[in-house]
Amino acid sequence: METTKINTLNLYETDYLRWIESNLEKLRHKNYQEVDWENLLEEIEDMGKRERRALESNLIVLLLHLLKWQYQSEKQTGSWERSILEHRRGIKKALKESPSLKPYLSSIINESYQEAIKQAKAETQLPLDIFPQQCPYSLISILDDQFLE
Fold first, then answer.
1. Residue 94 — φ and ψ, nearest 5°?
2. Which DSSP category does 135 fall into?
3. Exposure b/e, 73-105, CB count within 10 A at least 16 = b
């Protein structure tokens, strides 16, 4: 049994996919004593963190392109519109698959907006004070495919 635990830990470090498959097999066969619980619990925790980071990243890019769309309307491009649609879709899909992310999304709008205006300033070369200091968009507007069309 000790050898199995050492092999499982080694597998985690050397072949991540095989480590996942091995632990899934052990769980399916209710072979709980051989599951690499320490790493498995850490991975499950990290999955939640990755979901939140991906949601935040999509939100920042979406806010950035909404700002560029609104404040540089003469430079609107199909790629900005595509990006707006793509990041809205990513956020909506995440919320559909994990509705419990919605309160988190609401809680990060202002922080994400601050990141978006810094990036918008860098990309547009417009002065920072041209952008509202507080997010001018509601969550409903941010996710509305018709908003700023």
1. -60, -40
2. -
3. eeeeeeebeebbeebbebbeebbeeeeebeebb
148, 70 in Cβ contact below 8 A? yes
Alpha-carbon distance 56 to 139, whole Å? 13
- Residues of the chain with confidence (pLDDT) below 70: 1-9, 149
The enclosing H or E element of 117 equals helix 102-124
**Residue 133: DSSP 8-state:** S
Q: Where are the alpha helices (DSSP H) in 29-101?
A: 37-71, 78-97
| pTM confidence score | 0.81
Burial of 135 (0-12, 13-18, 19+ CB in 10 A): buried
Q: Is residue 19 classed as helix, strand or coil in its secondary structure?
A: helix
Residue in this structure with the two tokens 């999509």, named with its chain if needed? 58
Give the chain's largest Cα–Cα span. Answer: 68
